[in-house]
Write a structure and sequence with these properties.
The protein is of the alpha/beta class. It has eight helices and 13 strands.
């Protein structure tokens, strides 16, 4: 029997079978030993084979979004599989999403060929120069940017058509308004939302598991809020290709194995001096290079 994993609570997986059944399944014990270095060998969005309420096989994945496991640095955590696109919900304030977090997510999505739409939420609370700068920055790199308010509904008319007939991963820091956004896009879902911590302007987890929500002939994948985004399985020499503008200028570097940190004739360093690459993007690139040295999970800063 074949089906789609539509919910993952950690120990149980909800599978929607091709004939319309909804089954609660577990993973067979020896399944975890087949070279899958992941805290969750089965992810929401996976196509699987089910035998007697056990998942016995995962079909080949078209793509996936992956990050380093927070507590087990040498293992990965697959956020979702077989997605058409990702919506990264960010906020300039209440709470603030760091550019490091945004860039790490974008680089991971580039690596696994997942298109990303940046959704700047809470325009009812902030529409200052910083947000407009970030929108202009990422728009110039070719990323589609939308400014919305999940609270008031502003801007959602431009977002809804982009989700039709597609499997979309919804991600972002805790507190950026993902649950409120889903409640707007899919009335009747009634996801729980929470207030932002007054002391630290940080979010609190309201979603505790990953789940696929039917929407517009497709699926919206709701995931728990992420505090940090540790990258996984990226080699230092390939990292620059996941930063679009750094890759563009790197074609003119004197050395083909240039790391864009100190080498003579580095076109990337020259582009930074000429203000053609945003300092925040370059700092994100350096922080990801640094991951390889530290071999540990890094929180966004």
């Amino acid at each position: 029997m074949h089906g789609l994993v539509v919910k993952n609570t950690g120990s149980w997986y909800t599978v929607l079978t091709d004939d319309g059944q909804v089954l609660q399944c577990k993973v067979k014990g020896n399944f975890r030993l087949k070279g899958i270095r992941s805290t969750n060998p089965v992810a929401v969005g996976d196509r699987v084979t089910v035998t007697s309420a056990f998942i016995t096989e995962i079909e080949d994945r078209r793509n996936y979004i992956i990050r380093k496991s927070q507590n087990l640095s040498k293992q990965s955590h697959i956020i979702a599989a077989n997605v058409d696109q990702a919506l990264l919900v960010v906020t300039v304030n209440y709470p603030q999403t760091s550019t490091t977090f945004i860039d790490r997510f974008l680089a991971s999505a580039e690596a696994y060929r997942v298109p990303v739409i940046l959704v700047f939420n809470k325009t009812d609370l902030t529409q200052g120069d910083e947000q407009q700068y970030l929108v202009a920055l990422y728009d110039s790199l070719g990323y589609q940017c939308l400014q919305v308010s999940a609270e008031t509904g502003e801007g959602l008319d431009r977002l809804r058509p982009l989700l039709d007939n597609k499997t979309t991963l919804l991600s972002g820091n805790s507190g950026v308004g993902k649950s409120t956004l889903i409640n707007r896009l899919a009335p009747g879902t009634n996801l729980r939302t929470s207030e932002i911590s007054d002391a630290h302007h940080t979010g609190q987890h309201t979603t505790t598991f990953s789940e696929m929500i039917p929407l517009g002939g497709g699926w919206l994948i709701d995931t728990p809020g992420i505090k940090g985004f540790g990258t996984f399985d990226m080699e230092p020499e390939e990292l620059s290709s996941y930063f679009r503008e750094i890759f563009h200028f790197s074609q003119d570097c004197r050395f083909s194995n240039c790391t864009h940190t100190h080498e003579p004739g580095c076109a990337v360093l020259q582009a930074i001096q000429d203000h053609l690459i945003a300092p925040s993007r370059y700092q994100s690139y350096l922080s990801m290079l640094d991951d390889k040295d530290e071999s540990k999970y890094r929180e966004a800063f």
